[in-house]
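Hi everyone,

Forwarding the result from last night's run.
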Amino acid sequence: MKLEGRVALVTGAGSGIGRATAILFANEGARVIVNDRNRETAEATVGAMGARRERGYAHQADVSDSAAVRAMFAEVDRRFGVLDVLVNNAGIAETDDRRDEINRTGEAQLQELLSGGPIKTHWDVTTSLSDEEWRQMIDVHLGGTFFCTREALKLMAAKNRGSIINMSSVAGLHGIPVAPHYGAAKGGILGFTRSVALEMATRNIRVNAICPGWVETPMTQHFTPFLKMSITARIPMMRWGRPEEIAATALFLASDDSAYYTGQWLSPNGGLFTG
């Protein structure tokens, strides 16, 4: 019961890593605000807590909407009067059209590589990226992390304690050719994490990041079997991660086990990136 008596908010907790994290936190004794932009999925996560579901509270909000975020944290303050842990996990994937393009290009490149080259099919994502695609990715990932952190700090500063965990990615560490806007957002989250960690250190509010590798979630289900196999071949452990394995990292950063960690990133990635 590493989080006994604590209040935690997990954004984007309707599925994947967020859901696994919310359930684990409840099992470890926390009262958990389960945020998602879809109320039904947030409530489903609370239901999945089983015997611990009385520890869960579903709240619908789009983290890219600063007014909605303010209202969510006002509700947290009203209901609980405190916030001990924030996990900024909410994120979005590519549009269906962009996913299809990634699959087509990726498979074509692999076929050309297996045939001995040269590579004639190119990603060329940046040149075709629309303003809307760029802004939406930045707004949800980086903007949402900022909006939620800003409001969380107001509650945490009243007690001079807390842990904020920002979900970045290996894409923020070494880039990702199929999604430059995603890599930019995740890289920005790392810079934001370091800066706020330094700012809040004297208040005993710790700010850290997680940089997962490839994880089996609804956001990664669109890859074709051939493309997924080629990705797996580049992972030294020869498998994708599970949401529960990322949640375990979040638990470590949320608990007193990581009391001397701030401004850091941990990357559960199966050996994909060791820098």
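Residues 73 and 151 are 6 Å apart (CA to CA).

Cheers,
N.
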